[in-house]
Amino acid sequence: MGSLRKDSLQVTKSTLLKFLIPSLLGMFLFLCPLWVDGNINIPLGVISSRIASFIKPFSNWLLVICVSISSVFSLIYTVVKPAWAQKASFWRELFVVSPLYLVIRITGAIITFLVATKRGPQWLLSADTGGSMIHLMGTLVAWFFAASFLIPLLMDYGIMDFTGTLLRNVLKPLFRLPGRAAIDLLASWVGNCNVGVVLTTQQYETGYYTDREAILIATCFSATSLPFCLVIAAMMGVDQYFAQLYLLLSLVGVLSAAIMSRIWPLHGKWKDQYYPPVGRQVHESEPVGISRSQWALQQALARAKSAPDLPQLILRGIKMFFNIVFTLVPVTMCIGTLACCLSAYTPLFQWISLPFRWYFQLFGLEEATAAAPGAVVGLVDMFIPAMICSGIVSIRTRFVVCILSLVQIIYLTEVGSIMLNSKMPITLTDLIIIFLEKTVIAIPLIVLFTDLFIKF
Predict the structure, then answer these.
(1) What is the C-alpha to C-alpha distance for residues 98 and 77, in angstroms, rounded to an integer?
(2) How far apart, in whole angstroms, are the C-alpha atoms of residue 303 and residue 317?
(3) What's the rounded Cα separation, in Å, for the pair 399 and 366?
(4) pLDDT in tens, 313-356
(5) Is the omega angle on the peptide bond into residue 277 within 30 degrees of 0, that is, cis?
(6) Which of 113, 131, 216, 416 is packed most tightly, with the most Cβ within 10 A?
(7) Contact partners, residue 105, CB within 8 Å, separation at least 6
(8) What pTM was computed for the model?
């Protein structure tokens, strides 16, 4: 089939097919909207829902097994340190943790066991706290199982390299991001937000994003899936305006990301340095004497040629899934449940939300006192704003809070825990600062666009 240039990679039919087939399949699974069972979904969501339905009868005990393995082996690897435990690097990476994370994993295991067996105080077992979290984790495990084996279709067969080279001049000035982030941004926005963050962390840990780029993408470009947006809209009683709601959500999300990429901490705190163990692996700038489209294809084919075969793909999927369930599940059960308890049984978030009451009043939002806690508790979980604000009379206020809860998306029960548990150099304090900044920026944008485009 010829070559792109004398010293370029030879374009053979087999290499081209190895690029096209997995890449197109990956884009279909992660990005293609489908109408299934009366709702919009993506193929990955359909697969995950089927898996979740299958494991539902025993999902609680599956979680107990996962957190038990995590806590016991973390204790052995971190405290006892037997000689045999120091040989396998993969298992050391999973189970050697800091003292703080060891306590969190053990606490998460205890909470999971108590909730699964329904033994313990009501405040822990309640549907607003531990009961909600264990149900959520059962669903997430299904998502992560499917995504662990399918994410490589986007990462390893050339589509991100191809789009990255073509779109570099669009994303770089707009968001200060590399072009290859285009597929990641779409997967994070259209699909499940947790899967998008996992994809971002994988790209960071393999040398394709810098510290700043990975944190910016993870905190600003993850959105809930379309079906979940519908659920939140229905809970808030604004689902009749869903088309307008999703349009404004996307618009506010893009504008707030463009703004936040230019202010501290997303601009200034983290350097453009790559994950030290692997270094820089991305090369989007085309050399002299070759067009951008040719260089994009060449990069994609080179990536596809070195992509894993099926046995390697399965092994990598297993390792990725183990990394998620043994590290994320106990941390999320611990942090998420305790945060939900603080929200449900203490006035903490009522106190913290006082400045947002004044902020809502500044922009003329009705029932600002009732809406203010919804601006803060989204840090814990996106469900909670919908639960505590669904009784607000003003449909305009419910509409604004609904969009706000969907665009904040750094909640500790899922996305926040994934980021804190990753190799990205981000702390809980960083997440709180970014969450508050995004909230302060998003509120006036949401109110402005709501008043411009929606007539209630």
Answers:
(1) 11
(2) 18
(3) 11
(4) 999 899 989 988 898 889 889 988 888 898 889 998 889 999 99
(5) no
(6) 416
(7) 67, 70, 71, 74, 97, 330, 331, 334
(8) 0.81
